[in-house]
Write a structure and sequence with these properties.
MINY3/4, single chain, 2 helices
């Protein structure tokens, strides 16, 4: 029998396959499971266990920002520019979100 904690996690956790590699995307904010208002600005963490990743990546997700608020005149994932695959995966859930890597060099 499967434990209720596995069927309904206490914290938001996603197992991801990005560019053929597996990793875990998670948050320590349990409100993301039940309160849509908490999806304005929130933090996600990503860990893949790959050799090139020396620490868990801390990402800040802003689902209500606009391209003119980013300080850049151009969307970093616009046509002709490369966008990290992890950002594209996150945008399958939160379309149009601005993702800050908080000083970590984007990988994937």
């Amino acid at each position: 029998q499967v434990s209720p904690g596995l069927r309904t996690p206490r914290l938001p956790v996603w197992v991801c396959s990005v560019s053929g590699r597996h990793g875990v995307l998670f948050s320590t904010d349990r409100r993301l499971l039940s309160d849509w208002k908490s999806e304005r600005i929130f933090h996600l963490y990503f860990y893949s266990g790959q050799q090139e990743q020396t620490q868990t990546a801390h990402l800040t997700i802003d689902t209500h920002s606009h391209h003119w608020e980013e300080g850049q005149g151009e969307d970093p994932c616009s046509p002709g520019r490369r966008c990290p695959a992890l950002e594209m995966a996150i945008r399958t859930k939160w379309a149009g979100a601005t993702i800050s890597w908080n000083g970590t060099v984007p990988f994937f």
